[in-house]
Amino acid sequence: MRPGSPTPVNQDGRGSAELIHAGVVVGVGARAGVSADAVLAAVDAVVPAGAVVTGLVTLDRRAAEPGVQQAVAARGWSLAGLAAEELAAVAVPTPSARVAAAVGTPSVAEAAALAGGGDLVVPKTVVGAVTVAVVRR
To answer: Which residue ranges does the record assign to the CobE/GbiG C-terminal domain (predicted)?
Structure first.
């Protein structure tokens, strides 16, 4: 504990309550035609308990998908779509040659989440037909 602090502090200097309620951004990769239910189920499956999702980031083509737009509208999240070239410029822990061949970037979910900075708290995780990664900002 920091002297005079009533809240336990973690190694990064943030109080544990702050970590639990930190805003997180979710990067999402999915195939064309993904449903809102699939996106929401994947996000719900991986976002840490108590975290507050503030936005979803994905490939620009997927941001135009009705299922993705319906998912963010249902939860009141912001939505950003990034070009494959922008995503390809982001260093990620688990790039994929298969994804690079399909969409022009070796990562969608992790790169999208990390594009605006932050700490990767959930690396890319596949839930059904959706891949998600979570960053704390």
So the answer is: 24-134
- Mean pLDDT taken over the chain: 88
Q: For residue 34, give every residue at least 6 positions away whose Cβ sits within 8 Å of its Cβ, in sequence order, or none.
A: 62, 65, 67, 68, 129, 130
The full set of domain ranges for the chain reads: 30-131
Which tens digit of pLDDT belongs to each residue from 4-58? 323 333 334 444 444 455 799 999 999 999 999 999 999 999 999 999 999 999 9
CATH architecture of the domain formed by 30-131 = 2-Layer Sandwich (3.30)
The C-alpha angle 63, 66, 68, rounded to 5 degrees, equals 50
Strand duo 78-82 + 52-59: pairing: parallel
Residue with tokens 């260093």: 91
By the 10 Å C-beta count (0-12 exposed, 13-18 middle, 19+ buried), 59 is classed as: buried
pLDDT at position 75 is: 97
